[in-house]
C-alpha cells in the first residue's frame, strides 16, 4: 500500500469503531485536560500548557530546550507542563496502537484490555523514548551555540527521526526491549527511508496545520473578543476537538505503515 491507501484504510478502520478510539483518546489525554481545567479555574496558580496537541510534544520539547540553552535559565512552569504533555503523548500511543492493531487483524479489543496492555508497556515505552529525547536535547543545544552548529543540529534530527518512526509500534506489538526496539524501528525503513520519511513529513505538516488552525483562529478572534478566561476556554476546547479528530488518524496511519513495512521485510527475507 502507498501512503494514500494507508490513509484511506486508517479512516475506514477508525470510522468502523469511532467510540472506542475516542474513549481511548479522552482517557489518554485526561492528565492534560485536568491540567488545562486547573489552569482555567485558577489562572494565577497554574500555567496553561503551551500546546494543545499531543503529537507536537517533541516539537515543544525542542523549542523549550532551545530557549533554556539560549538564555541559560530553566523555565520551570513550561518544563512541568511539557512533562505532563510528554506523558500524555506516550499514554496515548500505548492505548491507541494496540486498538488499531487488533482491529486491523479483525479482532476485538476492549478499552479495558487496551489499558492493561498500556500499563504493562508504559515503562518500556518511557525507556525506549529516552534516546529520542536526548537526541532532541542535543539538537537544541547545537542550535543555541551558533548558526554552523545549528546546521549539525538539524542534520542530527533528520538522521534520528527515521530511527524512531516505528518505536512505539515495535515496543507495544513486539514486546521489544528499548534497545532492540530502536534497532528494529530503524531496520524496518531500510532501503525505503527517503520515500517513507519524506511522505510522512508531508503528512506531519498537514496534521500540524490542521490541529493548529483552531488555536490560530481563536488567537485572531482576540482582536474582536476581549482576552480572558472565556477566550482561553474556547481556545482549549477547539484545540482538544482537533486532537479528537487528528490524533487517532496519526496513530492508525503509523501502525498500518508499520505492518506494511514488516510485510515487505518478510517478503524480501523469504
- Percent of residues in helices comes to over 70%
Strand elements, count:
0
Rg (C-alpha, Å):
19 Å
Shape: globular
Distance between the termini: 19 Å
Give the helix/strand class.
mainly alpha
Q: What portion of the residues fall into strands of 2 or more residues?
A: under 5%
- Could you report the average pLDDT, rounded to the nearest whole number? 79
Which keywords apply here?
270 residues, mainly alpha
What this model shows, in words?
The protein is mainly alpha-helical. It is built from twelve helices and no strands. Helix 4 crosses helix 7, helix 5 packs across helix 9 and helix 7 packs antiparallel against helix 8. About 2% of the residues have low confidence.
Layout of secondary structure:
Elements: H1 3-16, H2 18-28, H3 30-41, H4 57-71, H5 76-104, H6 111-128, H7 130-145, H8 147-160, H9 167-174, H10 178-187, H11 193-221, H12 229-269
Helix pairs in contact: 1-12, 2-5, 2-12, 3-5, 3-12, 4-5, 4-7, 5-6, 5-9, 5-12, 6-9, 6-10, 7-8, 9-10, 11-12
Overview in brief:
By secondary structure, this protein is mainly alpha-helical. Helices cover 80% and strands 0% of the residues. It contains twelve helices and no strands.
